[in-house]
Amino acid sequence: MTFHVVDLIRTKRDGGRLSDDAVDWLVDSYTAGAVADEQMAAFLMAVVWRGMAPGELSRWTAAMVASGDRLDLAGVGRPTVDKHSTGGVGDKVSLILVPLVAACGAAVPQLSGRGLGHTGGTLDKMEAISGWRASVSPERMRSVLRDVGGVIAAAGPGLAPADRKLYALRDVTGTVESIPLIASSIMSKKIAEGTSALVLDVKVGSGAFMTAHADARTLAETMVTLGEAAGVRTEALLTGMDTPLGWTAGHALEVAEAVDTLCGGGPADLIEITVALARRMLALVGLDGGADPADVLAAGTAYPVWRRMVAAQGGDPDAALPTAEHVEIVSASASGFLHGLDARAVGVAAWRLGAGRSRKEDPVSVTAGVRWLARPGEWVAGGAPLLELHTDDLSRLPSALEALVTAVEIADTPPPVRPLVRDRIHL
Ligand code: URA
User: From atom 6 of ligand 1, which residue's Cα is the shortest distance away?
Assistant: First the structure.
């Protein structure tokens, strides 16, 4: 069936709903280059204002999945389950979670992206490991999933190519910030990845994509509905992102922290979130009757799985991680309780030190980043070291320091303790 794209733009502009055939035609024609960027940009802007009906959105997502290949993971011999995070500062959870859930008997096929903006991408972190390569063929992925149980790799060009094109267009047309467009973009890639179940970590707070709880909840509900409609058992946890996770933000720094956690150490907040996600992942695939992930993590049993995962992609798990040439110390301005450490400010500082990119082609520095020496709730002495800024390029320091000017809040009383996991969304 053929449609006139201008009619479809008008329908959406006026608040109407596209038929299934119209959605399929629009996504296919745009992916094939028969609908022009300016026409799709107009359509996307109409979606930003008018939204999409639930059935229309799941058809849109299905059309994006169908624009490329859907991986077949039926032969890996273990139930498949993945996690997706909407992105937070210091969020190195995947590096611990993938081997942990694999150590508990599932297969985790995590196809991931690189970071853009103030949150770091999982692939950028893994690339801090000497020799490690992000690119893995589908055959190799299946064999590593069968033998080791976990893969973290780059999504290839054949995975939801419609999203690749649409996301690039949204980025330059002010149409990223739309719940249906974000939800379909994320879920099309996760559905195409071939996982049978998925747990979403939807971050909420100053360092997250969604700063308001209500918006994060709507995004989570929309994604859970899309996953279930596509036959993927899906649920979401809403987790706090006002304070960065763990002790570090920056690629090599985060790998070191993840390894420490896999060996039975690690910070309490990072362990809490990782274990909460692992428990839900195992429950979704019926593997929750075995050892508790908290015990597996504390015993260091997931660490050998991490080593095998790294080695399977050419990485040397014994190689020393690179370190920055310069470490600048920021001291506490007064004595008192650390009341707040703003996640966004820390993320922006790490990004300006070299850890982040402005355009997707930019290189990143794996050594750059921030380490904080106290967490909210702890007492700090005025003049004592509070933050370490790591960089190879001293000219980056002033703008990083500027990002941190209002990041630290010190008060006479400790801040209220809030749970990290705020909500669970499931159908
Ligand atoms: N991440 C995605 O993959 N897509 C979006 O639209 C936003 C974040």
Answer: 182
Which architecture does CATH list for 326-411?
Alpha-Beta Complex (3.90)
Contacts 24+ apart (CB under 8 A), 11-14: 12/43, 12/46, 12/47, 12/50, 13/42, 13/46, 13/50
Residue 239 has pLDDT above 90, yes or no: yes
For residue 39, give the nearest of 57, 26, 56, 22 by alpha carbon.
26
Q: What is the pLDDT of residues 162-210, one digit of tens each?
A: 999 999 999 899 999 999 999 999 999 999 999 999 999 999 999 998 9
Q: How far apart are CA 112 and CA 122, in angstroms?
A: 7
Is residue 83 part of the annotated active site? The answer reads no
Tokens 């077949």, located at residue = 72
* Ligand 1 pocket residue status of 116, Cβ below 6 Å: no
Tell me if residue 170 is catalytic. yes
Cα angle 116-371-315, degrees, rounded to a multiple of 5: 65
Q: Which residue in the list 163, 201, 269, 342 is annotated as catalytic? A: 163
Catalytic residue, candidates 29, 58, 94, 185: 185
The pLDDT value recorded for residue 358 is 79
Query: What does the domain layout of the chain look like in residue ranges?
Result: 5-51, 81-312, 326-411
165 part of the active site: no
Right CATH for 81-312 from 3.30.230.10, 3.40.50.720, 3.40.1030.10, 3.30.379.10:
3.40.1030.10
The two beta strands, 369-372 and 326-331, are unpaired
pLDDT of residue 390: 98
- In 3D space, the residue among 112, 143, 125 whose CA is nearest the CA of residue 257 turns out to be 125
Atom of ligand 1 nearest to the CA of 176: 6
Residue showing tokens 């973290």: 152
**Crossing angle of helices 251-262 and 268-284, rounded to 10°:** 70
- Reply yes or no on whether 125 is catalytic: no
pTM of the model: 0.97
**Which CATH number applies to 5-51?**
1.20.970.10
Mean of per-residue pLDDT scores for the chain: 96
Ligand 1 nearest-atom number relative to CA 189: 3
Hey, which of 47, 116, 122, 185 would you mutate to test ligand 1's pocket, going by the most ligand atoms within 8 Å of its Cβ?
Answer: 185
- Nearest partner of 157 among 189, 184, 183, judged by Cα: 189
